[in-house]
Amino acid sequence: MNGEAAWALYETRLRRVSAYIHEHLDEELDMDRLAEIACMSSYHWHRIYRAIYGETLAATVKRLRLHRAAGDIVRTDLAVSKIARRSGYPNLQSFNRIFKSVYGMPPARYRKEGSHRIFEPNENGKANAMFDVTLRTIPAVDLIGIPHIGSYMQISQAFEILGGTLNARGLISPDMKMIGVYLDDPDIVPAEKLRSFACVTGGSEVPAEPPLVRRAIEGGEYAVLRHKGPYADMHKAYQWLYAEWLPASGRQLRDSVMFEDYINNPRDVGPTELLTDIYMPLQKAA
C-alpha cells in the first residue's frame, strides 16, 4: 500500500471515529473502544489522531461535551446536575470544577450571569448589549465544505470531518479561513432539519472529491458583527442584529445566506476568547 492509499484509509477511519464520538457523547467513551472502531491498536491510533486533529481524543471529547453543556445551560431549563451526568461527569463537583476552568465561572452562575445574559432586554425593551457593526463589501468567495443537517450547535461534527479530511489529503494551507454557512432560520425550522455547511476557503485549485463539496459566498455588501465569546451565546447576537441594528440602520436585507467567519479555533483558545464575524447580506444603498 502506497502512502496515498494509506492516508485514504486513515481518513475513512477518522470519519468513523468522529461520527461515533458525536453520536455517543452521553456515554462513557472508552479510548480502547475508539481504537477498535478505527481498526488500529490504541498505541498507534492515538498518535495518528493527534497528528491529524492537533489534539488528543480525550481533549476532543472534553471540548465537545462542555460545548454542548454550555448550550444546554443557556438554552434549556435542565438541572445542572442532569447536564453534568449527560456530559459524562461522575458528580456535580467535578463538572463544576472543569466547567469553571474553561468558562470562568461555575455552570449555575454561568446560567445567571454568563455573557449571554447581557442580551436580556432592559426596562425599555432593548438589549443591554451593544455591538460594533461594520459595513464591508467583499468579492465572491469559493468554499470547500461538508454538509450538515441538524442543530447548528452540532456543526462541529462536520468541521471535525472537514479538518480530518483536508489534513489526511494534505490540502490544508495556512491562509484557509473557517466559514460556517447557515441556510435555515432556527426559529422556524426544527433543529433536526436545519441545513448548514462547515467550510474553508479554497478555489478550484483545491480538489473537492467526496465527502467534500463546493460552495460559494456571494460578493456584495454585508453588515458584519464581531462576536466574542462562546458559540452557545451567538443566537442572542443574531437576535440583536435583526431586532435592533437592522431597523435602526434603515438598510434592507439581500436575498442571500448569512455566514460566520471563525477568526480563531476552539482547539487553540478557550470559549470566552472565541471571535466570530457574523455576516448579514444587505441590498445596495439607495
From TrEMBL:
Residues 15-113 form the HTH araC/xylS-type domain. Coiled coil: none annotated. InterPro entries: AraC_E-bd, GyrI-like, Homeodomain-like_sf, HTH_AraC, HTH_AraC-typ_CS, Reg_factor_effector_dom_sf, SmbC-like, Tscrpt_reg_AraC-type_HTH. The keyword Coiled coil does not apply. Keywords: DNA-binding, Transcription, Transcription regulation. Pfam families: GyrI-like, HTH_18. PROSITE patterns: HTH_ARAC_FAMILY_1, HTH_ARAC_FAMILY_2. One of its GO terms (molecular function) is sequence-specific DNA binding. PANTHER family: TRANSCRIPTIONAL REGULATOR YGIV-RELATED (PTHR40055). This is GyrI-like domain-containing protein. It comes from Rhizobium tubonense.
